Amino acid sequence: MAKAKFIEPDLDFIHEISSAEMQKCYQCSTCTVVCPISPEVNPFPRKEMIWAQWGLKDRLLADPDVWLCHNCNDCSVNCPRGANPGDLLATLRNYFYTKNAWPAFLGKAVNTPSMLPFIIAIPAVLILLLAAINGTLTPLFPLEDGHIRYGAMFPGMTLIDPLFVSATLFVIMSFSISISKLWSGMNNMTPRVPNKGMPLVQAIIATIQEILTHSRFDECGQAKTRSSAHKALVFSFIALAIVTGVVAGLEWLDILFDINLVSSGHHVTPLPFLSIIGGPLKLLANAGALLLIYGVYTAIMNRKNDPEGETFGKQTYQDWFLLYTILTIALTGLGSELLRLVNIAPIAYSVYFIHLIAVFMLIAYLPFSKFAHIVYRTTAIIHSKHVGRYEMTAEDVKGKEAIML
Ligand code: SF4
Ligand code: SF4
């Protein structure tokens, strides 16, 4: 006879994630059947529905399936009870960013609408403070040889680099804490099946391939248009990251060794179009920015045309925070370039200042915003390939109640 099992519900957790719709679930499993990316054994999201109804917080916060879900909404559309399982998984991910990332107070601040002025003020004050320390903060917007050069007010070596390198180190530290917790939780819930799965390095390579091709995302039915917008965003971020990295390297080469590979002038930026290295970088940056605008505009319009969330799922503050941060980056990035070309200094420097604030918000708040899914979902996919999640048979999980129910 099976042993009795005591369930300890976390009532506060139920209160925070629950919705009237979720409570309608009667465990018919239609959602798991229609989910295009759920594995054969212990599929999702039916089991997550009952775990959530029972308030099994620890189990849900360690559940890799919450992150394997691509939010396509096929399950919600087909649920006979209107219980919206896709929304539950999105709510759990938002809960994770808000409550489980380190430090918790920033998770709360980033995900609370009334705190928005505060989290915008942090980078604004830091940038102004660093500019003041540099002695470049002046009401007379600086011109060099009659032209705008953003580095004259926001110098790379003593303002941009220290600010963004510190933000990046902070993000790495924050993710190290939460990813190690998540990884060990996932290992407890879904241990590796002997002789199945891939070695870790192979799993990482296969995951990168899957993300670049969006092979799993393309299996989604209901929200297919999300895939093209998502691809545009992924490739634009890759293009812009390459440009940023190369330009930073060129600037440090110039500073440390007085080697300027892009121009015969005193500075690496603004990149000259008519330069063997600067021209292609400039083109790549502009292509990346246009792709970013296309991706974020499509994502915003998808949401706007679906106010009830029937196709794309319930809309949340986290969705809009991320979309508008990315839109601000794209528009102010292109705007900074155009305004520099037409040489309208006060507006150009102001737009560039907003651009820096938005970029800082995207990077420094990454562990607490919906953008963190790029890290957590990647981790969950790597884990699933490593442990052989998609090759498991019923025999492999026999007796492992942690992932069954
Ligand atoms: S969420 Fe809907 S489809 Fe899924 S088990 Fe519950 S009632 Fe059935
Ligand atoms: S939202 Fe899509 S991927 Fe996520 S559980 Fe539902 S059907 Fe599966």
Topology:
Blueprint: H1 11-17, H2 30-34, H3 46-53, H4 57-61, H5 64-68, H6 74-78, H7 85-100, H8 104-110, H9 116-134, E1 143-144, E2 147-148, H10 156-189, H11 200-213, H12 225-257, H13 278-304, H14 317-342, H15 345-364, H16 373-387
Antiparallel strand pairs: 1-2
Bound molecules: iron/sulfur cluster (SF4) (2 copies).
How would you explain this protein's 3D organization?
This protein is an all-alpha fold and 405 residues long. The chain has helices at 11-17, 30-34, 46-53, 57-61, 64-68, 74-78, 85-100, 104-110, 116-134, 156-189, 200-213, 225-257, 278-304, 317-342, 345-364, 373-387; strands spanning 143-144, 147-148. Strands 1-2 form a two-stranded antiparallel sheet. The relative contact order is 0.14. Bound molecules: iron/sulfur cluster (2 copies).
Give a summary of the structure in a few sentences.
The chain is mostly helical and 405 residues long.
User: In this structure, how is the largest beta sheet organized?
Assistant: 2 strands, antiparallel
- Strands ordered across the widest β-sheet: 1-2
Number of helices: 16
The low-confidence parts are none
Average of pLDDT: 89
| Total beta strand runs | 2
